[in-house]
Amino acid sequence: MSQRRVGLWLIGALGGVSSTAAIGISALSRKLTDNTSLVTATPLFQGVDLDGFDEFVIGGHDIRRSSFVESVRDLNQRSNVFNEALIQACKPDLDKWSANVRPGTVLGAGPTISRLADMPEVQRVRTPKEAVERVQADLKEFKERNKLDQLVVANVSSTEPPCDLDERFDTIARFRTALEAKDAKIPASALYGWAALEMGVPYINFTPSLGASFPAALELAKEKKASVSGKDGKTGETLMKTVLAPMFAYRNLKILSWVGHNIFGNRDGVVLDDPANKASKVQTKDQVVSSIVGYKPQTHVSIEYIQSLDDWKTAWDHIHFQGFLGTKMILQFLWQGCDSLLAAPLLIDIVRLTLLAQRRGEHGVLSHLACFFKSPMGCNEHDFFKQMELLVEYVDKARGM
Questions:
Q1: Which of 50, 185, 312, 337 is the most exposed place for a label (fewest CB within 10 A)?
Q2: Is the pTM of this model over 0.70?
Q3: Residue 167, SS3?
């Protein structure tokens, strides 16, 4: 029997998260590393039909000239992660997968992201419909050439500015009409999402960008029997918020204020240095605490670009709370982690679970993946432990229990 082959198509393929996921999948398939940080490798998933790491073929879209090897070497040099021996051992896979990367689009991505592009091909579309058709042609060619049994698209590109939805985003018919207009101003993430869903391909939005989180796209997913999930992978400070806020709620300690200050220096930091792009990120990070405790403390979230930190994201949080007899107390924590190394295993988990859901005939919003996202689609619950209960319940069903 021939081995299954599953395709992972990455939007922002040569960025830090994507290239880390690529070298990670290669290293796991070659048994050069253990499975630390992978939720899907825990005992909870024993007996569940998840894809093996040696079954993956990777490709994607990007707007910059690079390769997976160049990207992981860049991370190695700037942030002191990986090592040359691992890069060399995984180089055959990385080189092969780099050949699958195609020029993406910056149509609707905003000026800050557009300035990162150094390939003229990304500008050569006149309408959103042309961009969608080009993305679909690349996806079809990738699937056919590699004889893939399944394909999933994941958006791990830079954060776009917020998008105000109007009637164009309400229905499939209206959105298709909007795709014809040159000045439609439809975000690039939505074009990628639409292209995938129209082909019946699952779409994961690992970013705070619009992606497929609008009514017409959700209607299309239902029509094409495709799945969507997102938004914005929960890897660091917000993960801590969704773990700590329930403690205050369960112990009836009143949070008076919660201030979070985030600094980092990677390419995502460059993009988020633009106030318009930053607004999307702050929105997903700032909604969590009040939704868990049931009231609105004073909150503040800041995100600042500090070039010297490179991929090492640092967050300092100051929590002012009231205890017994009106006594005011303080909890502070410092979180520092390599952004790409925190995000990549989470992305791999989501991809494996999305492929499983597709084999099980599931479509629409995969709300059981809420624990992986800051602003989970199809789920208003932000308490990490309650979110995990949703995943455990789903896994038990998938195992046939």
A1: 185
A2: yes
A3: helix
